[in-house]
Automatic annotation (TrEMBL):
Coiled coil: none annotated. The gene is Dtwd2. Residues 1-188 form the DTW domain. One of its GO terms (biological process) is tRNA processing. InterPro entries: DTW, DTWD2/TAPT. It comes from the Eukaryota. Belongs to the TDD superfamily. DTWD2 family. It comes from Chordeiles acutipennis. This is tRNA-uridine aminocarboxypropyltransferase. SMART domains: DTW (SM01144). It catalyses: a uridine in tRNA + S-adenosyl-L-methionine = a 3-[(3S)-3-amino-3-carboxypropyl]uridine in tRNA + S-methyl-5'-thioadenosine + H(+).
């Protein structure tokens, strides 16, 4: 896990990489590389190297990334990005044979949106989302809503669905749970979602002047899916 011995997460990682048929392509925003508590390294430590490939950048053209372009044109490739055009992953796995490739964007919600909409390659694969309403266990980082998940959590849930093996989710989440536990023991605070803070009158930052951002906050308070 490359962490100090005092907070080593290796005992919580699988002894051997998980055997999965699905290959993940993690499209990582450059800002995530410098985050101390990022979850993608833990995800990669749970999977064989050939099943978890990480590409860092903001723009991905076909000329610079021919392998990625081929992946995006593969009829068995899915991209995990919620929205009106997305199909629930649970329904896709029932209707067809197990997809062999899944693309997941790693970054804040605004960074992920920028990557998705400014790279035409990512609109070639079938767009899917998780209808699973589980709450995030990544409690040491603030999420927009209670059901927003970290990249590792998204991958864990998605792989469990595609591979039809619930234990995959439990195994991948184990190091994340340990990470949060270590951080809380060493002084970190539980971060409630922005949705929770707004609804309970606990949001202590100045309200945004930007009308679009202010509108998004109003939707959060009123339980409107955004």
């Amino acid at each position: 896990c490359s962490r100090p011995q005092k907070v080593c997460l290796c005992p919580f990682l699988p002894v051997h990489p998980l055997k999965v048929s699905t290959c993940l392509y993690i499209i990582q925003h450059p800002a995530e590389e410098s985050r101390v508590l990022r979850t993608v390294p833990l995800l990669a430590a749970c999977l064989p190297p050939d099943k978890c490939k990480i590409l860092v950048g903001r723009r991905f053209s076909e000329d610079r990334y021919p392998e990625l372009a081929t992946v995006c044109r593969n009829r068995n490739t899915l991209i995990l990005y919620p929205g009106a055009e997305a199909t629930n992953l649970e329904e896709v796995s029932v209707m067809s044979s197990s997809p062999s490739i899944m693309i997941i964007i790693d970054g804040t919600w605004s960074q992920a949106k920028d990557i998705f909409y400014k790279n035409s390659l990512f609109r070639l694969p079938k767009q899917v989302q998780l209808k699973n309403n589980i709450s995030s266990q990544y409690v040491i980082r603030t999420q927009p809503t209670n059901t927003c998940l970290s990249t590792l959590e998204c991958a864990a849930v998605a792989l469990a669905i595609i591979e039809k093996n619930k234990s995959i989710q439990e195994t991948i989440l184990r190091p994340l749970q340990a990470l949060c536990s270590f951080q809380l023991q060493h002084g970190a605070q539980i971060h409630h979602s922005k949705e929770h803070l707004l609804k309970n009158g606990l949001y202590d930052k100045p309200m945004p002047k930007n009308k679009r951002k202010l509108r998004r906050m109003e939707l959060l308070v009123n339980n409107v899916k955004i």
